[in-house]
Structures are given as C-alpha cells and as structure tokens.
Amino acid sequence: MNTFKYTFLLFILAISSSCEDFVEVDLPDHKVTRETVFNNDKIARSAMTGIYNQLFNTSFANGGNHSVTFLAGISSDNFKLTTNNEDMREFNQNNITALNNYNLELWAGAYNVIYMTNSLLEGLENSESISDENRKSLEGEAKFVRAFTYFYLTNLYNEVPLILGTDYRINATASQNKQADIIEKIIDDLLDALDLLDENYLENNRARPNKAAANALLAKVYLYVEDWEKAENYSDKLISQASLYELLGHEEVFLANSREAIWQISPIGWGSTLTHTREGSIFIYDPTMNTPVILSKDFMEIWETSPDLRYDKWIGEYTQEGVSSYYSYKYKIAFDFSGGEIEEYSMVMRLAEQYLIRAEARAQQNKLQGAIADLDMIKQRAGLPLLSVTQPSISQQALLKEILLERRKELFAEWGHRWFDLQRFDQASILNDKPNTVWQPEHRWFPIPENEILKNPKLNQNDAY
Amino acid sequence: MKYFYTHQCGFGLILLLIFFSTTTAKAQNTYKLSGQVTDTTGQAIPGVHIQRINTTNGATTDFDGNYNIEVTGNDRLSFTYLGYQAQTIAVNNRKLINVQLSPSTEALDEVVINAGYYRVKDRERTGSIEKVTSEDIELQPVTNPIEALQGRMAGVEVVQSTGVPGAAPTIRIRGQSSLRTNFDDNGNLPLYIIDGMPINSSPIDSQIQLFEGAGVDPLNTLDLTNIESIEVLKDADATAIYGSRGANGVVLITTKSGQKNQGIKVSTKLYTGMSRVDNFLNLLNTQQYLKIRKQAFENDGVEPNAYNAFDLVLWDENRYTDWQKELFGKTAELRSASFNISNANETTSYIIGASYQKQGTVFPGDFSYEKKTFNLNLNHQSKDKKFKLNLSANYGLDDNDLFNSSTFVSTALSLAPNAPRLYNDDGSLNWEDSTWSNPLATLQNEGKLSTNNLISNLGLTYRLTPSLSLKSSFGYTHLTSEENIQTPIESYDPDMWDRVTNRSQYSDIRRNSWIVEPQIHYRKTWGQHHFNTIVGATFQENKNTSLTISGRGYIDRNLIGNLEAADQVSIIKDRDLTYKYSAIFARLAYDWKEKYYLNLTGRRDGSSRFGPDKRFANFGAIGAAWIFTEENFFDKHLNWLSFGKIRGSYGTTGNDQIGDYRYLDAYEATPGPDGLYPTQLTNNDFSWETNKKLEAALELSFLNNRIHTEIAWYRNRSSNQLVGYPLPAITGFSKVEANLPATVENKGWELGLSAKVFQKQSFQWNTSLNMTIPSSKLVAFPDIEETAYANTYRVGEALSLDILYEFEGVDPDTGYYTVKDVNEDGSYDYDDRLITKNLGRKFFGGVYNKLNYKNFSLSFLFEFVKQNGRKTSSLPPGRLGNNLKSVTEYGSSSPEDLQAPSQSINAFLAFNRYAYNSDFSITDASFIRLKTLSLGYEISNDFTKNIGLSQFKLFVHAQNLLTITDYEGLDPQSPGSKALPSLQSLTGGLQLTF
C-alpha cells in the first residue's frame, strides 16, 4: 500500500506541474497578434494596406451587388433589373423591407470597414514604436477611410451610431447620433487627414489616398450639406492641381491609376488571378452570366436628342432576337481570370465630379459664369455643344437643372450618385415614374436593418419602415 | 447490431455459498502458491476467485490472471469465475499451479468489453457500451468501418450520404448535441480511438465535388477484416473518462492480435464481386415528356421556338435515352484480398498482415477506389510476467481516382429524355450546337486523392506488485492526403474555349499527432469488497497543416497538374495549426459481493483551444449497478429469471471541437497581398460545451439466459453551446465566440433483445433486435432570432427541423401550386413559414439473424428506419428537363394534386420556391433494408485436414440486397438528396486458415 501511495503522489505531482504549461501553443503562422501589428512601422502599414484590400471585398465598397454603387444605383431611375431576386427587387421598387438581406450586408460591410479603421487608430494610439512619419500618414489614411464610410452611412440611413472604438461590449448598445454630429465628425476626420496625408501618391498608386483625396471628399461633404462656399473652395483647390489631375478621354478614365482618378480601389483585393472590377462583372450585360441589371428605358431616353461620346463609349448594347438592351460599359472588362496586369481600378472619386461639384456650388451662389465654365469642361469632353455658346445667359434654375442632368450622364453607375442627387435636388418624386415603384418621400432613407434593431434595441427605425 | 450477451448467474450464489459455508482453517505449515489462470485460448483471466475450500481465505487473480495464495500442502482450491466452469484442484504440495478454465456451456457469451482505459465484464458494466465483433462485420464490402455499423447498434445512427466509395459516412451517437454542423466547424463528431490512439475524426476535406462535401473518412485506411471489435461508448459512465472529448460518444476500434500459444497461423480471405445502383427514379419517357412539354406551351399560350424549346424544335423527338442507366447504371467490380500471419508462444505473439481492396464505380469511364493496408500487432510478456509490451501499427494507402462534378447524378435525373446523343460519329463529345451541356464533359475533370495514414501505439506495462501496475501508452499518427483536381478546357463547350484555360488545384493536408498516457492501475480486494483503480494522465499534440495551390494557364492538357508548367500559380490556403491537450483522469470501481457495483470516473482536461484562463475544466460521472438476481429472493421465487440488473449513470462530458486559436486577438493576411486585417472580434473567455448525460437501464435474462433483453432510457443535455454570441453589425462583426446558454436535449429509449432460438449441436439460431426511439429538442436558445440559426432551429422543436410554408393546393385560376401568405403582406418569407416538420428519425434499428446448420452458416441483417423526409425535388412539369412519371396523371385522376404544366417563371416560383418549401414536400421516407446477407459453407474433411487447413470457408455476401420503401427517391437513407445512392453489391469468396 505504501508503494502505491508513494507512486501515486509522485505521479500526481509530476503531472499537475506539467499540465498547465503543456497546453500553451505558439501563435500560428497565419496570425499576428494585435500587439505585434502595431509594434513596427512595416507591419502597421500592412494593416492599412489590409483595409484597402478589403475595401475591394467588403460589400459596401466593392462595386458588387451589395455595394453602394449597385444598391443606391438600382434605387434610382438609371437601371432596370433583369433578375427576380427579391432583395434587389425591393431596392429597385423603393420598397425595401427592414428584413432585406442586401441592406443588412451593405450596412454590415460599412461598419466592418469602420471597425478596421478604428482598430488601426486604436492600435496606433497604444503603440509607442511607430515612427512619427508613419504614424502621421497611417492616422490620416485611416481617418480618411472612416470619414468616407460614415459619409455614405449617414447619407443612406440618416442617423446612425457613430462608432469610434473597437470594444464590442460598448458598441453593441450604441445609440444613433444626430446627422449633424456625424457630419461634424466626418469633417473633423477629413481636416485631420488633410493635415496628415502626403501631397503625392506613393508610387503613383491612386488606391492609397493623398491630401487631395481628403480635399475632394471635403468638397463633396460640404456640397451635400449645402455649404456652397466651402464646397467651391475645396473643389477649387483640387481642380487647381493640374500636375496631378486632368480630364482624360472616355476610354482612359477608369483605367488603373488614371490621371482623372482621385481615389480608386484596386482589384488586387481579389487576392487571386482575378483582375477585373466587380462593376465590370455586374454591369456588362451577359444573359448567360445572369447579369442582374441593364440601363433603364428612362435613362436611355436622356440620350435620344443628343447622343454624345459618353453614349458611344460608356454604354454598351446587347441585341437578342431583335431586342436591344443597353448596359453601363464604363468598365470594359467583365471577367478576367488571367492573373495578368490589373487594367482597371474601381473608381471612387474623380476629377470630373469635382468640376460638377464646383459648378453646382458656384451656381448655387449665383456665380453663373464660373458654373457654366465648369459644366462646359464636362460637356466639351463629351463632345457636346458648350453652354457658354448655346445658352450663355441661362437662368440659375435652368443651370442647376442642366447640372443635375449632366451629373446623371457623367456619373451613372458610380457610387449611387443619381440616388443622392435626386434627394439633394429634391427631385425624388420622379421615381414615381418607375415601373412598379412605391416611392414615398420617407423612402429617401434606407431602413435600419431589422436584425440590428433586434440585437440592439437602442437603435430606432427610420420613418416609413 | 449489438450483441446481447447472456450471463451465467448461478455463480454469484455459488460464490456466496462458498463464502458462508467455509469453516476456519487451522493454521498449518503454510507457504505461498502462485500460478496463472487462463482460458482455453490462453488468454489470462483476471478476477478469478480462488478459495481454499473449508476456509475463509481466498485470493483473486490480477490483470494477467496471476495469483498468489497462502496454502498448506494438502489444501484443495476452488477456481471460480463467472461464465466458466468452476474447477477444484488439490494442491498436493505444489508451488505453482496454472489453471485453464473452460467456458461454462450456458455462458459462452460472457464477454469482456473494452471501455478504453479499462476492460469490464459485460455482466458487471455500469455504463452503456455497444459492441460488434469481427465475424459480424468483416465480410461487408465497404470501405469504412463506421459504415459497417449501420443498423447494428442501438443509439448509433449511421448515414451514408453518397455511394461514391471513400466518402465519409455521418455517425451520430445518441443524436446531435451541438448546434454547429458545418464541415469545418462541426461539434458533433465522436471520438475515434484505434488501439488506444485517439485520431482526429473529422473527415478530410476534399474538393472533389462527387463526395458531396462529405469529405473522406480517416478510418478508410483501416482494413475491415483486420478489426477485432468495435465498441461504442454512449453514456456518462463510459464516456466521462474521456472528459472534454466524450460528449458525442467514443468509438473504440481494436485490431486483431495473435492469441497466446496458438502457434503459427496463416489466414487469408479473398472475395470478388460487383456493385451497382439498384434503385432508379421512375422518370418520363420521351413520348410522355414531349406531351407535357407541348401542353405547357399550350397552357402558356407561347409558341415553341429555337430559343425557348431546344427539345421541341431542335432536338430529335424520337430519341430516348435512359440517362440514369447511361450515367450511373454501370456495374462496378470490386475485389479484396487480405492476408495475415500470426504466431504466438508463451511470451510473445504477433500478427502481421496486408490487404488490398479495389472498387470500380458505376460511372462511365475508368474510375476507382483502391486501398492497401499493412498491419502489425506485437505482444510480449516477460517470463516473470512483470513486464508487458503491446505494439500496434496500421498503415493504409487510399487512392480515390474520380472526377470532379457536383451535378453528375442530378443531371441524369433532369436531362430531357430526348436530349442529344453523347458522342459524334467521330467519337468526340457532341455539344449539339451549344444547346446542351454534354454530361460526359465533366468526366475529364480528373480528381485524384491519395491518403496515407499511419496509426501506431505502443503500450508498456510493468507490474510492481500483484495489485499495482504502471502502464504507459505512446501513440503516433501521421496522415497525409494529397489531392489533384484537373480542369482541362475540353470539359467546356468548345464555344467557350477562348474564354477558359486549363487549370488545376492541388491540396496537401497533413495531420500529425502524438500522445503519451502514463497510468497507474491498482486492484485490491478486502473480503467481499473489490476495488479497481486507475489514475492516469494524457499529453497530446496534434499538428494539422493544409496547403492549397491553384495553377492555371497550362499550355497542354497533359501538363495539367504539373505546377511548373502552369502560367499562373497562386496559393489559395496555407494553414499550420497546433492543438495541445492534456489531462489527468481517474477511475474508481468498487463492488460488494459482485452484486452492487459503483463506478466513479473523472477527468481534468486542458485544451489549447481556449483562452489562458479557460483552458481547464473538470468532468466526471458516477455509475451504479445492482445485479438483483443475486439476491436470495429471486433465486427462490423467480428462478425463470436467470439474470437481472438495474444500472444507472449520471455525469458530465465536454466538447472542445471548435477551431484552434479562436481566442486570440490577432490579425490575419488579407486575400490581397501585403495586407493584414482583423477577422473576428475577440473574446478569450469562452470555454467548453458541456453535455450532461443521464441514463437508466434494466437488463434481464430469461430461461437460463436463452433470452436477454436490455432496455435503456437516456437523456443528454448539451449546453454552453459555442455558437457565437450574436452582435449587431455596428460592432464590426455579427458575432463573437462565446458560450451561449442554449441547450440541446437528446433523449430516448434503446431496446435490445437477443435470443438463442435453437441451440442444438447441429443447428443453432441466434436472433437479435435493436431499436432506438430518439427525440431531440432545442430546449433553450436565448435570442435565436438574431443569430444565423434563426431559420434553422426553433426553440422547443427538434433539431432536424424543416421550417415550411403551409401548402394550399392548386390555385384553380392559374393551375399553379400555392402556399399560404400567413401575414397577408403579399410576399412570402420566413414570417409565413409557420409549419415545422421534424425530419429526424422517429425510430430505427436492426434485426439480425444468424443460423448455423452443420457446415452452413447464414446471417442477415435488416435495418429499419421510420422517418419523414423531403421529396426529391424536380423542376415544375412542363419545364425543360425530365420529371417523375407521376406528373403524367395531370388532367386525369386528381388534377388538384398536380400543378399545370407550364414553363413560366411564376410556375417555377410556385413549384420550386414555394411548394417545395412547404409541407407539400414532406413525405414518409421510412424504409426497411436488407443490409447484409451472408451465406457460408465450411469445408472440413480429411483432405483439408491433411493439407493443414484449419479452416476453409466459402461465402457469398450481399449488401443492400433489398429495400422496402414507399419513398420515391434514389435512397431513402438521405431523402431529398440527389447524390449517388448506397450501392447494392454481391460478393463471393473464400477464407482459408492454415
């Protein structure tokens, strides 16, 4: 019995001392702890590159069928659906239910980007080993992306929670903020970014925002909040940088790092041998590939009297059994699995929009000549007769109407411009002309996803839902 | 099917008698006598009671059958052990007496059960353990040992989701306990232990779509004929000693070993045969099909043209092809050979063997499954019997030579019967001007998967004193699996060739693990109190790596797969995961008078899958049994009852089957280059899922053990589910890993019955039945509406649930099916799906019969399952594509049952989206299947004896020979599935032993 006791005790001692340590495992090769990420300039930079890569994959910004480009696009009057997809149909008929999955994807994607930027900003804050130079640009870039994301969130959903940290225990019960507060934070972030970002694109990579990108977004933010003067100022600053930006031929605009681009998202985010943009695959109509949309009849009618270069270069035609369908052909590559050079980047902001911003800001301030000059830059490139020639003394109202039309023609199929413009110009009632629509003014805001309200009862649903 | 062993019961009483009838022996010159007690095969018998007749002194043999006892030279000793004939031996001044006990004739079935860390007599077990032995499973021409368990064990549900050889079957022991059922995150896998070595039971991921996502089972590399027994541990009493890994039950596989003193033995088994699909759907022929198609166009008021009706306008209306026969109607050959040599003397025994198995497929073309295995088992015992060694090694090579297609079988069901011919006159594939997708094209997508698997274990035991032994086992496994899938452009329509390119995907999966388990075994008897103790520890490390590389742009088809020749190579996945596990465990078994039994087991586990503060947890169970027929009362008044036992157990087990490293706050590489990103919210506070198991059972034998019954009731409650705590997306993600107070309850009744119907010298007939009546329920799941499980599970309902619309029959205006818009909002969504149907099994089981008449033996197993299931889906009648023959009844007998032929989109939505997701699609899918049928003839005459044959047996074996069901589908086993059904096979062969 003694032998037993003795052995037993020894055994237990030996085991219990080694058990606890034994189950420690090293970090696997495919993970880096948060601590390590922000311990070193190079790795911290990867975290920002990760955000750019993921912007191409996250539903909100990727140009695919859950993106702002697509969902705000089909909510406007530019597109006609070619599919029976119930979720898409709801957007197209301005009858989105709070249960719509695409709406949730869009929302969730945007907040995933916010999380990534917050995570990076917190990481920077808690780290002492990042060089000042790097810290500056990383902070600037992260704030820019965060501001950009909130800009779309608040313009799609009105009041949304302004999440600025990563602690899910706190964030899970966050309430909505007033739109004015959100805008203020967006402007704060952008002003910081303006301060922190570099003048030039690093290695001419326009997928990484520079100072001018912050500038351009500020112009857009002020335009949306109808601070015409500031909108004019910021767009003015942007347009004056002729060394970086110019209006290009229509075939060149959407190419990778084109000189018209202020900020683009690169399909390098695919992380595979795919090299096309999602806009290319979703808009270039191919009935065998179940492409979900074609351009609407209403949209095609605007070209009837004056088909310009954009009609020629940016609109494709598909004929089957004698019936023509038209589709957005800004991006030329629908599918490329070759793994070769990436030819097209997904455009987020470009010079032409800045001209249109300045034109509108000037027109609103009754600086009509300046506005006409800006608008003519766009018309000229499109091969249209110039307003300064045809209607040099156009009224302010008529000019604004002209600007709205020009925006529709220039910016269709990009980042839901038409949808936001209709709201801004108070023209959304024309959505009633769409087939099957149930448009009501309250539908200008998408519903807060039902799932979100269930999980966080502090969130309030938008009116009309 | 489980064996219900009968018991010899009188012995307990005899023992008692012996105890109480003894008188005090006078002290004479005593000395120490020792020896060993073995059975007729030379296996040691532990626990044999040795009694000095007419004294109160006695002893018990240890694990190795050895005993020591103080005796006088003229004592007489009685050796008694349940199930064996008692022997009385005079000492006659000897110092060593080895005794061989013969089984008592009425208790031939006294069986020792492997409970993993210990062995227990079936009579004495306190837990719920099922067992099958080699002779019942070895003839089955299946690739996987788990498949062989179908219908044989109560509480064990085995489903073969596809008949493609090599695909992993699903096994659930007492139901689904975890809500996580994804392939790479499945919390329902049992623990597999092969000769003491735990192996990762999750199927090996394969991208070959023919496997229907089931993966390949790591047990495929075992040779079925080399398995001695399979035990399945079910309740807390049996599984708690496996702690965190026992929640879903434990499958113990023991391979064959040499038998003591048998001398050299050579045995071989050969069989060959064929297999085929025996059940095809009853589909339309061309004439019936075209009639319905034309009717559809008429109903729709549409003129068929070259765009909307290839089949009517372009294709030959006189063609008819039975696509099922064409695409999976081939007869596949199969053959198997196994060979082993064993030898054993007093101290050493070994068995060494090899096997080969090859199966063709029922698909056109030359595809196959091939398996080669090698096995070794070595036992050695030192002369003084203090030291023991056991080495077991199993090595298997598995080659799946298939093609990559997910729709090959379902295409055969949906192709129009007048679809074009497969080949052009020149032998090339016919694409009929791109009006169809030639089904044979995908045969060119070669998919090859080879798996090498080594499972080895070394056990060393040293006996310090007769009651105390030290033991340690050392296990090592090494599995590599390589897969190569090729996609040449020829698998596409030539019209597409300029848009596609030759490509390949290569995957390499490795699983390495080692384990060390030192243990102390202690056994002691004080009078009528018997104690049996184990204390042990486990250290285990698993390393799993996987690498997936895709190559594309091969210039020539022949080069596909050689990554060097690829234009583009990219890494799809590269993972290197480590899992570490450690534990201390203990068992204390106690019995008094071999009548009252108590079994305490416990384990303290640590797993690297949890955060630093949550790595350890305790699990334990208590089991008790009372053999009430040992009480005097029964012997006097109820002697028709030969054995009766009540047993029960309660305890907790856990589940750490989640991914590795989930608690880490870390960044991962983005798919795009040079980027890192956070992929999850971090919580390092989550821990084990726990499964509390309760069981009560009654075992009875009647008529001198001719009939044995066992009835068990169990209730398992699995809580602390690791399903992710739902979070609003504003947190950045939709969930965080956390234990949820969600509870799953599985309870049910298990019934076993076995009877020796005839027990004559020349004719024996044994029959047995097992049956399980399971029920599962999601007892609690707070806030389920907000989780990804909202539309999968319902609180208060069974887990295998379908949530459905209410079917409302045919709309008289449109002729289409309709379902109820419950909330009348004009659209159909989950708010309208209020009907729930339990698709789980209502009851299932098997009936097994085994007959011997002289040299003939016959055995057969029926599997029966009562369940509801989904109908086989099809397109709405009238659309391009074949349909069930029953649609021809439209317009005749009961039109309200059938949707009007139409190929409009609304007809499609009504049929496939709404009606198919309503209670309309649920039907009875019960079946009875003659799972196995074996007939054997043993040749035994002077000739065979002269040439040294100790056994010469011829046999034929049929698998899935007959299925009785009303279900209209390929295989009622997995209703609704369009995968290849389980194959029917017929094999014949011989078994020789020299």
TrEMBL record, chain A:
Q: Which organism is it from?
A: Psychroflexus halocasei
Gene Ontology CC terms: cell outer membrane
Q: What Pfam families does UniProt report for this protein, alphabetically? A: SusD-like_3, SusD_RagB
Q: Predominant location of this chain?
A: membrane
Kindly give the CDD domains that the UniProt entry links to this protein: SusD
SUPFAM superfamilies reported in the protein's UniProt record: TPR-like (SSF48452)
Report the residue ranges that make up the SusD-like N-terminal domain in this protein: 38-223
Compartment(s) where it occurs, according to its Swiss-Prot or TrEMBL record: Cell outer membrane
Q: Which UniProt keywords apply?
A: Cell outer membrane, Membrane, Signal
Identify this protein by name.
Answer: SusD family protein
Secretion signal: which residues? Answer: none
Family in the record? Belongs to the SusD family.
* Domain RagB/SusD intervals: 310-465
From TrEMBL, chain B:
Alphabetized GO MF terms: siderophore uptake transmembrane transporter activity
| Compartments where found | Cell outer membrane
Which Gene Ontology cellular component annotation is one that this UniProt entry carries? cell outer membrane
Q: Which Pfam families match?
A: CarbopepD_reg_2, Plug, TonB_dep_Rec_b-barrel
Alphabetized, the UniProt keywords read:
Cell outer membrane, Membrane, Signal, TonB box, Transmembrane, Transmembrane beta strand, Transport
State the similarity comment: Belongs to the TonB-dependent receptor family.
What is the recorded name of this protein? TonB-linked outer membrane protein, SusC/RagA family
| Species, as recorded | Psychroflexus halocasei
